[in-house]
Structures are given as C-alpha cells and as structure tokens.
Amino acid sequence: MRATPILFLALVSAAGCTRSFYRSSADRETYPIVAERERLSPAFDIGRTRLEPRPGSRLGDPFNPDRPPKPPDDPAAAVFMTRPNGIRGARTWGKDGYTDMIEPPGWDQALGLDARGVLRLDQDRATEIALLNSREYQTALEDVYLSALALTLNRFEFALHWFGRNGTNNTHFGSGGPPTETSTLTSNSELGFTRNLAAGGQLLVDFANSLVFESVNGTSLVKSNLLISLTQPLLRNFGRKVRLETLTQAERDTLYTVRAFARFRKQFWAGVAVQNGGYLDLLLALQTLRNTEANLKRQEETYRLYDELFRGGRASVVELDQFYQSLQAARQGVIDARVGLENAQDAFKLRLGVPPRIPVELDDTLLQRFVLVDPKLDGLRDDLEAFQRARQAEFGDPPGVEPLRRYFAALRGLADRIPAADASAAADLDGWRRLLDRPLRPGDDPAQRAREQATFNALRDALPEAAADLAKVAAAIDRHLAAVAEGNRREAWEAVTQDAKVVLAVLDGVIAVQTQARIHLIEVPVIDVGEADGLAFAHENRLDLQNRLGAATDAWRKVTVAANALRGDLNVIAAANLGTDPTHQKPFDFAAQASQYTVGLQFEAPLNRLAERNAYRASLINFQRAKRAYVAQSDQIEFQIRQDLRQLNRLRVGFGIARQQLLSAARQYENARLILLGPRDRRAANDTTTLNLLQALSSLLAARNALAANYIAFEQQRIQLLLDLESLQLDSRGFPTNAAPRRPDPSAGRDDAGDPGPRGPADAGGPGGPAPQPLGPSRPAGPPPGPAGPSRPAGGRRRARGPARVGGGPVVAPPPPGG
Predict the structure, then answer these.
(1) Chain centre to alpha carbon of residue 640
(2) Containing H/E element for 203?
C-alpha cells in the first residue's frame, strides 16, 4: 500500500541516532569553540581540553561512556528504585551490566610507588599527579566544556531547524460492505524548516501532504500544500542589536570562561607547588619538625651532661629539674610538629586527588640550605660528647693503664678528623666572601654590610687559631699518652678529660664558623619590579580584569536591548499557501486556483509596558554597577600588587632580622656550652649558666623556625606577585616557564649545587625576556614552552610589555653551598 513506505520512514526516524553519535556530535562542535578562543591570544591557552582523563587517572572510567554498567548502590536508597511508592519499578536497569567499582582498577599503579609502597614527591611530581587526579581541576575543565556546549544551542538558534512529521491512522466504520461500511486510511505528512533571521524576522517553509485511501470502495484522495511564511518586526524585537543579543552574550561568556580557566590553571599550579597548603608548606612543616628534633637532641645531650655534673656535685637538683622540664617540653614539641606534618601531608594528598592512606616522602632539596652544620661535623661532635660523657662517668674511679692508653689513642683519632671539618668550614667561608665582594644593591644597608664584613674577618681569623689550638692539643695528647703509668692513673684520667674538652672546644669553634657562614649564604631572590611598571602590566594583562571590562560592555548592550522592548509591536507578515488541485492525484501539481497569498501588518500599541519599564530601569542600574565593578577590580589589582611589593619588602627585612637572630642565638648557645664545659676545678653549672643555656636553646629553635618560615613565605609571596601581575606563564602541560627566582648575583658565590649561577637573561626570566628552559628534569618530555610573555587578543592592540624581572624557570633552586 502507498502508506507503507511513509509509515516505515516515520518509525525509523522516531528511533533516532545512537547515543554515541550524539556524544560525538557534541564534541565535534564544542571543542573547536574552545580552540577558537585559545587562538585569540597565547595568554588564553588552557592546555588539555579533552574531558576524558588521561590513562592512569583516578578519574578515568574504563566502561562504555554511553552505556555504563549500573554502579553499586546504597542499600536503603535501592528500595525506592526497585519499588518507588510501592509500585514495581523497571526491571531492565541492569541491561548494560553491573559493576562494583567507582574508581578505575589499577589507577594507583600510575603513581609510581617505590618498593615500600611510598609515593616520592617533589614539586614537579606533585603537579603531575594533581593534574592527573585532581577533582577540582577536572570540574573546572568540565565547566569550560559546558559553557561551550551551551553556546552550540545559541548558534543553532540561527540555523535551519528542519522538521518532519507524519500521522497515519485507519478508521473502520460499519459493516456489510458499501455503502454502510467504510475503512479509511489517512496519512498526513509534513516536511519543512524554520529559520530565525539576524534582523529579527522568522521564515517558515512547510510542505504538507495528505493521503486518504478508502479500501472498501477503492477511492483515494491526495492533496498537498506548500506554506511559506515570513514575519519581520519593525519596532520591538527589530534589528541585529536585539535579535543577536543572546548569541552575542553566549559567545562572550564562553570567552570569559576560557580566560577564567586559563587563570585558574596558574592558581592551581601555585596552590599545589607553592602557596598555602601546597608543597612548600609541607617542606616548612618538615623543616619545623627537623628543627624541633634537633632541639630535642640538644636538650637530651645537655640533660645528660647536667646529670653527670649533678652526680659529680657540680650542678644542683634545681638546675637538673629545670633542664628536665625543658626536655619534656622539647619532646612534646616534636610530637606536635610530627602530627602537624602528617595532617598537612594528608590535606595535600586530598588536593592532589589521592587517598590519604598512601604514604608520601618529600624531596627536601630546598631544605638543604637550612642544614647549618655539615652532618659529618655533627657526627664528630656526637662522638666527642659521647667520649666525654664516658670519661665523666669514671669520676672517682680512674681506669687502668691500658684503658687510659686506648682513651688517648681514641681521642687522638677524633682530633685527627677535625682538619677535614676545618676545610669544610673554610669552603663555606669562602662562598660568603664572594657574596660580600659584590656591590651593594638597592635597599642594602651599608652599616649591615660593614657589620657582616667585620664578622667575616673575625671568623676568617678564627680558623687559623683553631688549627693552632688543635696542633697544641694533639701534641698534648701525645705527651699525656706517653706519660701514662700505674702511679699516675688519676692524673692521666684528668688529662684525657681535659684534653677532650679542649678538642671539643676547638670543634665547637669550627662549627660556629661554619654555622655563621652558612647562615649568611641563605638569601632570598631579587625582585626587580617597579610599582608603576607592574601596575601597567597588570592592567593590560590581568585576565579577570579583561572579563570585567567585557562584562561592562555586556551591561551597556543590554540597555539598548531593554529600551527596544519599550516600543510598540509592528510586524510585517507575508505568507503564500500553494495548494494542489484535489481533483487529481498529483502531489506536486500546484494550482493557482488552490493557492492563497497574504501580506499584512500587525500592530500593538505600547500601552502596557510596566514590566519592560522596570527591566529597562534595572538595566541602567546594572550598567553602572558593571562599570563600578570594573573600577573596583582595577583598584583591587592595584591594592594586591602594592600589597605584594610591601609584603615582599617586609619579608626581605624580616628574613634579614631572622638571620641575625639566628646568628645571635647560635653564638649564645655556643658560648653557654663553653661556659658549661669549663675547667673541672670550678663549678661548671649555676643558675645563670642554666638559664642562659635554656634561653639559648629556646632562642635557637625559634630563630631557625623563623628563618625557614620567612624564606618559604617570601617564595610564596613572590609567586603571588607573579599571579597578581598575570606574569606567570604555563606550558601546555600546566608547568611554569618563568617562575624561577633570580639569584642576587650570578657571579657571587656558588649556586646551591656548586655550579655557576644563571648566565643570562633567560635564567632571570620574566615576561619580557627569552623563554627559559623547561621546568626540572623529572618532568616528561613535551612541547617547548610558550611565548615569553602574554599578549593582547588580535585586533590592533599592542603586545604587552614585560615588567622587571621576577622569575624564569623552576621554582625550587638547588641546595646552597655545603648543604
């Protein structure tokens, strides 16, 4: 029958395309929209745009995205899926299968855990893991996609909207054949399109066909109509300004979303690698733990010494109790610092998108600059103090001749290890000399430089004196060893005890030189950003400010659109309805006698415009608000940059103060030790000595923590300045290309790994300089870094100037000399 093909086509069309087709179709339209905005400026690059996480991601989905299996359900909630309101639910929910997994299996293998199951992290590795597994990052990327996806619907509004409809039914009436019985098959079909025009009009083209077949008497009727209709407003809703407003806003909103994500990527990297709660905060917590552990070690050593002095009658029980209380406080401090570090690590794992149960181990390269004493020297001092404690335990019961000879030989062996310590301290002192030889920089205090030079001269002279003292005590040890005999065992024991004190005092002097030299080698990087240049650069390049400026123009456009709605309605209508002659069976034989043509006007006076009036008044207010928001954002940016510069200056000064406090505390501690280890023939401990030593230990811990905190805070503030300037640039993988600190003087001293410092402007970095090398060796190979600085979108606006140098490579510099 003639209606069968039409019915078949209708059924096929009703089934539609597959889920995969529609998903792929959305991707084919959406991703080019994002790429179109990225091409406007290198500053708008957002790296990865595909929504599907990379292999190895915890966010991945191993199943068919269009037909995922049913995931595990909450048992209580499952009752209402099986029988909602007591009604039997669908039984085919599991037709695509079942799974008990929410996370993809084996995702943790991509973390690269070591044989102990520990995740080793540095800044680069932490960033890689966060980019791979962060839920926050994935959600922000999906927001970009959704914004572009919404735009496809706005664009489709001005495309051809095709439609095809068919209604077929069969009506049977009566019985017994004609004329009392009829069986009529009726099929009504339509095919056409609508088109919204940019000036506000709407075009409709509709081809309608009607087929009537009466099967009892074999009669049929075919009739067709072609309807063409055009409606064009002339007052309200007229013009491209009004009709294209929704599309214009959607196009611009997608650009705003892309720019917001481009800025989010920078903030995301900074949050993971540098800023509060990021990797540098973990290092600070780790350094705080190490400082408290070192303080506990000193407290334990000093308490053991006081215990020996107390048993020898050279310290009171009050003094011993004071140190015992201090020792317990130090133990509690270690516990608190360890818990703080572990809590910070777990919070950081959440930021990376990995479960807190996975143990981590931090790369502490940056912290090596805070190692103020060579571990070998620390070990030597531990050995000497253990030797001294063992001798003091023999008070009143001198050992035999052979043990005494072994003691002298062991002490001579310990003394022979000091020249290597002297050489290590001399190397650090030489690095400090090169820093002192450089010219004063803007902001440097000449008086402070003079004090540092005087301290350097004194320490430089101290090393030869320590070498001479060492030679004297070595000769004394040899003499005392040769003189050991049964008749002078007590005198020999006193000699070996006194010689040990002298050797320890010599070593303490060398350690004091190295400690002060290394403290002076710790420096914060140079920030050469002028306020005027920085403000000008930020005003031209801040992506959020550009969005605010665009929003002001959006509000301005909406005033015109709202004003148009106040006008009356005046529409031109033109229509043509071409019909076929119903007396024949030709569906495309249109006849003039069956056609109709219409032209006319429709008018409605603007007598009821209260809602439109209110919308118009609100648009005027919103425009003023948008301008104020732009000015407020501009002022806020100025405030941020000025605050950053002030904060950096404050932190630089605070770092210098913390360094001087650490120097003073270290000298105070060494001096208190020397007094405590005084000659045996007088009381080595008293109230003043004990209080001085307790205060020195407390000051030393506080100063070491303050120095590390100031250093980390300065680096965090420096990166914040890059963010506030919009100067930080990322490559396509999400790693910075210009974030490394510029060293104070490339020619002064060694760099932190013993290599020469930066060798040119590429190392100094900044948005105005050449592109630096990629960030760190641990990162996988990838495309080269992007342009050296951000630029304006195309359209005749000049390329942005770079501010003075702020950075240019990896954030974490190598460790300092002798670390």
Answers:
(1) 19
(2) strand 202-214
Rg (C-alpha) for the chain, rounded Å, is: 41
- The answer to whether residues 21 and 229 touch, using CB atoms and an 8 Å cutoff, is no
Shortest CA distance to 696 belongs to which of 654, 658, 662?
662
- 783 exposed, middle or buried (CB, 10 Å; 0-12, 13-18, 19+)? exposed
User: For residue 534, what pLDDT is reported?
Assistant: 93
161-193: b (≥16 Cβ within 10 Å) or e: eeeeebeeeeeeeeeeeeeeebebbbbbbbebe
- Assess contact for 30 and 49: CB atoms under 8 A: no
Q: What is the DSSP string of 289-353?
A: HHHHHHHHHHHHHHHHHHHHHHHTTSS-HHHHHHHHHHHHHHHHHHHHHHHHHHHHHHHHHHHHT
State the burial class of residue 394 (Cβ atoms within 10 Å of its Cβ: 0-12, 13-18, 19+). middle
Measured CA to CA, the distance from residue 122 to residue 776 in angstroms comes to 10
Please answer whether residues 727 and 803 qualify as being in contact, where contact means their C-beta atoms are separated by less than 8 angstroms.
yes
Give pLDDT, residue 729.
93
380 alpha-carbon distance from chain centroid: 42
DSSP state of 217: T
Question: Cα torsion at 780, 781, 786, 788 (round to 10°)?
Answer: 80
Tokens of 404: 């005494």
Residue with tokens 């599907």: 52
In terms of Cα–Cα distance, which of 714, 314, 317 is closest to 497? 314
Closest CA to 462 of 505, 522, 399, 520: 505
What is residue 180's predicted lDDT score, i.e. its pLDDT?
76
User: pLDDT tens for residues 604-634?
Assistant: 999 999 999 999 999 999 999 999 999 999 9
Separation of alpha carbons 108 and 372, rounded Å: 38
Give the bridge partners for 628, in sequence order. none
Q: Which residues of the chain have pLDDT under 50?
A: 1-3, 680-683, 745-819
User: What does the alpha-carbon distance between residue 332 and residue 702 come to, in Å, rounded to a whole number?
Assistant: 15
Helix axes 279-311, 610-676, angle to 10 degrees: 30
Would you state the structure tokens that stand for residue 111, as one six-digit string? 């973390």
| H or E stretch covering 375 | helix 375-392
pLDDT of residue 5: 52
CB-hemisphere CA count at 13 Å for 640?
20
Q: Would you tell me how many other CB atoms lie within 10 Å of the CB of residue 29?
A: 16
Non-local (6+) Cβ contacts of 347 within 8 A are 277
Q: Which of 780, 766, 796, 520 is nearest to 662 (CA)?
A: 520
Q: How far is CA 816 from CA 71, 742, 747, 758, 762, in A?
A: 53, 14, 15, 14, 21
**Bridge partners of residue 209, in order along the sequence:** 189, 224
Alpha carbons 521 and 428: distance in angstroms, whole number: 8
Q: Which of 730, 740, 806, 816 is nearest to 767 (CA)?
A: 806
The sign of the CA dihedral 509, 514, 519, 520 is positive
E strands, 404-520, are none
d(CA 525, CA 56): 37
Question: What six digits make up the tokens of 285?
Answer: 């917590």
Distance, CA of 3 to CA of 745 (rounded, Å): 89
Closest to 44 (Cα-Cα) out of 254, 246, 247: 254
Contacts of residue 646, defined as CB under 8 A and 6 or more positions apart, other chains included, come to: none
pLDDT reported for residue 14:
56
Q: Where are the beta strands (DSSP E) in 694-769?
A: none
What six digits make up the tokens of 232? 């064009």
Q: Which residue has the tokens 């300045």?
A: 721
Q: How many CA atoms lie within 13 A of 588 on its CB side?
A: 0
How far apart, in whole angstroms, are the C-alpha atoms of residue 252 and residue 239? Answer: 19
The DSSP 8-state label assigned to residue 588 in this structure reads T
**Whether 26 contacts 149, CB under 8 Å:** yes
